[in-house]
Structures are given as C-alpha cells and as structure tokens.
C-alpha cells in the first residue's frame, strides 16, 4: 500500500490536524505524521513526537521530509479502533 501522510499544523503550543483524516485501525508501515511547525520552534534542538493511546505511549524521532518534520505513526497506537493523541516536544 502507498504511504499516507497525516498532516499537522503546529502553532506555538497548539497542534491541529489538517485536513481532518480518519485512519484505519490496524494500519502498519504506511501512515506518516507530517508536522508543519511554526518558527517559534526554531531554537528547539531536535523535536520528538509522542503518540499515546490508553496505556500505550511511543516516542518517535522526527526527520526532515519534503513537507516538514515527519515520522511513521506507530502501529501500537493504531492496533484497535479508537482515538490516539499526538504531541511534540
């Protein structure tokens, strides 16, 4: 299956998904989070993304992609239907 990008806009401390997307539970190795981060983050060394769902948390390194910082969305937070949260720091 082709890679699917899930885009997030980061303005200071606020993250918004755009456009809104619904992902399929059980997805593995093809969903990627792409972060468009405002310039207030420029002095932060290497931001990381934290994905959480229930008791599961996965910390992911962000790499520079064509459209912003990105990482794969961990399959562990998508193993079953439901909502997961994402934050960067």
Question: Which keywords apply here?
Answer:
globular; 8 strands; 3-stranded antiparallel beta sheet; single chain; mainly beta; 89 residues; 5-stranded mixed beta sheet
Describe this protein's structure:
The protein has strands spanning 4-11, 14-17, 31-37, 48-53, 56-61, 63-65, 68-72, 85-88. It is an all-beta fold. Strands 2-1-3-7-6 form a five-stranded mixed beta sheet, with no helix packed on it.
Q: What is the fold's blueprint, element by element?
A:
Blueprint: E1 4-11, E2 14-17, E3 31-37, E4 48-53, E5 56-61, E6 63-65, E7 68-72, E8 85-88
Parallel strand pairs: 1-3
Antiparallel strand pairs: 1-2, 3-7, 4-5, 4-8, 6-7
**Content of β-strand:** over 45%
How helical, in percent, are the residues? Answer: under 10%
| H-E order | EEEEEEEE
Low-confidence residue ranges? none
Quote the average pLDDT: 88
What is the radius of gyration? 13 Å
Form type = globular
Number of strands: 8
Q: What characterizes the major β-sheet?
A: 5 strands, mixed
Strand order of the largest sheet: 2-1-3-7-6
Helical element count? 0
Q: Outline of this structure?
A:
The protein is mainly beta.
